[in-house]
Amino acid sequence: MKKSLLTLVFGSVIFLAACGGDDSASNGETAEIDGKSVVQQSCATCHGGQLQGGNAPALNQLGAKYSEEEILDIILNGKDRMPPGIVKGEKAEAAAEYLSTLK
């Protein structure tokens, strides 16, 4: 009986330890969104892995042509063949901020 109880307690401790781990949730802060990661996940398929272009225009020097606000507008509303809303909300803002730095 003691062995079963010990196994249950030990198993519960391991389970609860695995479920914890996110320090940002405990102090009310949220993780900052990485614009570069958003762009790689959402844009690279059409614009190329190095954003050099492919099935869509190159983005690797987009910040030299458009402001952050203009880029955000394109992300949210689309332009030419790019459909609107592929990325939304804070992720769209982070992507626009990152793309505006590429000059």
Offer a few descriptive terms.
elongated, mainly alpha, 103 residues
Describe the fold and architecture.
There is one protein chain. This protein is mainly α and 103 residues long. The chain contains six helices and no strands. α5 packs across α6. The longest helix is centred in the first third of the chain and has 18 residues, at 2-19. The protein is elongated.
Tally the helices. 6
**DSSP strand content:** under 5%
Radius of gyration: 22 Å
- The shape is elongated
Major sheet summary line: none
Secondary structure layout plus pairing:
Elements: H1 2-19, H2 23-26, H3 35-42, H4 44-47, H5 68-77, H6 89-100
Helix pairs in contact: 3-6, 5-6
Overview in brief:
This protein is an all-alpha fold and 103 residues long.
